[in-house]
Amino acid sequence: MSNTYIGLMSGTSIDSIDAAAACFERGQFKLLGSYSQSIPKAMKQAILNLCQPETDSVQLYAETDHQLGELFATAALALMAELNLNKEDIAAIGSHGQTVRHSPPADDSIAFSQQIADPNIIAARTGCPVVADFRRADMAAGGHGAPLVPAFHQQLFSDSNFNRAIVNIGGIANITILPALDSKVNHQCIGYDTGPGNMLLDSWVHIHLNNPYDSNGDWGAGGTVDNQLLAQLKCHDFFSQPAPKSTGREMFNQNWLDQQLLNFKQVEPQDVQATLVQLTAQSIADQIDALEIRVDQVYICGGGAFNATLMNALARALPLSTLATTSALGLEPCWVEACAFAWLARQRVKGKPGNLPAVTGAYKESILGGIYLP
Ligand SMILES: Nc1ncnc2c1ncn2[C@@H]1O[C@H](COP(=O)(O)OP(=O)(O)O)[C@@H](O)[C@H]1O
Ligand SMILES: [Mg+2]
């Protein structure tokens, strides 16, 4: 059987569908190639509408599920063509889909997480088995169903001697703590969402400059952090909640930011951007500072790795750790998450668990995802 798997991922940023093909020979991971599929404006708007109870509908949900299934299949086929891979060369495609609502376990609400992009369509168009619906087995076992990337980070990025943190800065940021394997003290791998990553930055720059994101963080770099505003933003309950925890657009969005800014109308937009950069950096650094172990090395992945202003803010906030992107570990930051879903597909096919209960809060390890045959 083939050892090649494809991972398909679209995150909270809704910036693109990331496709990565990876091969797992004798336990060794190798990225074979990658492809980025742009998401048409109308589709992005439909997804954003689905993310809000005020603008969603069952009809829109079902139609977008279908259309995204086609687009995810297009991404997989483009990658296969680029790498000259036939359907027989692929063991399975792992498709995360697109999250349209995430409601983690809480006392006052029903827990669920909804990802769309019909895997039946992806299987039919590509001719490959597809693994999808990764989050709900973990949620059925009481977990958050998120984050799921820490198990992959643990496999790929753990070190014998150094305590490492892998920080994935997508729309939401999540952290994985990887204690040194040879340490005499047996610390567990933990991980959770730390709060907003790029999402508020993207939203704010879109309103003021009509750009999808602040390229390289240049606009934010010209602003001044407003410490009073920063202090207020940091009062959000999520930051002080104990792990396991996960979040999404439901909690951190433009409406929330607008509310926060009501008493800060005098703050210039560019200074708000600088403050949001600091919020992302500090909410990550605060978590690393609060750990029992000292983290020697911090590696960043996700699109936030390309925001130099954010990377500089993180370096300043983490003076005791070395800071680099996962490129230094041999995997480009933009492909880590898609690779994680290739790995999770492999776990499913091999009948192995994909969640880490210490991360998601589930009461047991679970085999994640359903298999959809072509
Ligand atoms: N060159 C860049 N400069 C600044 N920010 C960038 C750059 N490239 C990507 N990003 C940021 O990364 C985001 C996408 O990151 P990604 O890891 O794909 O997030 P998600 O998993 O939420 O889709 C973009 O929306 C943007 O905020
Ligand atoms: Mg993305």
Q: What features would you describe in this structure?
A:
- The chain has 374 residues and is an alpha/beta fold.
- The protein is 37% helix and 21% strand.
- It is built from 14 helices and twelve strands.
- The strands form two sheets. Strands 1, 2, 3, 4, 5, 6 and 12 form a seven-stranded mixed sheet that branches.
- Strand 2 and strand 3 form a beta hairpin.
- The protein is globular.
- The mean pLDDT is 97.
- Bound molecules: adenosine-5'-diphosphate (ADP) and magnesium ion (MG).
- Magnesium ion is lined by residues 10-11, 13, 15-16, 18, 170.
Query: Radius of gyration over alpha carbons?
Result: 20 Å
Order of helices and strands: EEEHHEEHEHHEEEHHHHHHEHEHHE
Kindly report the name of the CATH homologous superfamily of the largest domain. Answer: ATPase, nucleotide binding domain
Low-confidence stretches: none
| Beta-strand share of residues | 15-25%
The CATH architecture category of the largest domain equals 2-Layer Sandwich
Mean pLDDT: 97
- What is the count of structural domains? 2
Which CATH class of the largest domain?
Answer: Alpha Beta
The description of the largest β-sheet is:
7 strands, mixed
* Unique ligands: adenosine-5'-diphosphate, magnesium ion
> What is the CATH third-level topology name of the largest domain?
Nucleotidyltransferase, domain 5
Q: What structural class do the secondary elements suggest?
A: alpha/beta
Which structural traits does this protein have?
374 residues, alpha/beta, Nucleotidyltransferase, domain 5, 2 domains, seven-stranded mixed sheet, 14 helices, globular, binds adenosine-5'-diphosphate
